[in-house]
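Render Aconitase in 3D.
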Amino acid sequence: EAITKGNPIWNQLSVPSGTLYAWDPKSTYIHEPPYFKDMTMSPPGPHGVKGAYCLLNFGDSITTDHISPAGSIHKDSPAAKYLMERGVDRRDFNSYGSRRGNDEIMARGTFANIRLVNKLLNGEVGPKTIHIPTGEKLSVFDAAMRYKNEGHDTVILAGAEYGSGSSRDWAAKGPMLLGVKAVIAKSFERIHRS
């Protein structure tokens, strides 16, 4: 009966009058994504990758659960640091799913799975990698950003069935935001491949 009337709290929200969404730079839930900022009507097409460093070296069956940010935000993660720097209390971190509209959070949560096995770490389990030029062990996000800031491309090495599991957009968007230029794998799961 009252579906078109809304409710008092909803009806009191102020609504901007512009034709485009007014991004709030302070929001930790919704952030303007970078994908379309430099987009042109003609896609740039393939390009060479030279002198790239290996960001991660995986075995078989790296799933979208390993790649995509999922679950709660760990208190020592790059995403947690980002939130704390913006005044968000730990009890309000919420989950990656609830913050999937913020690419800054999601990039920091890409490859943040605690069960990740990266051959660069000699069997150690967790969301870390080696920054090859210095030999320093860093979070995957911090290593990726260091490579980007140094002007280096990165690649991921993997075995069979990379990307298996349920289809997730962040399994593609996350590595791209980290600066990964190629995934070199024995094989790719069908949905991920397409």
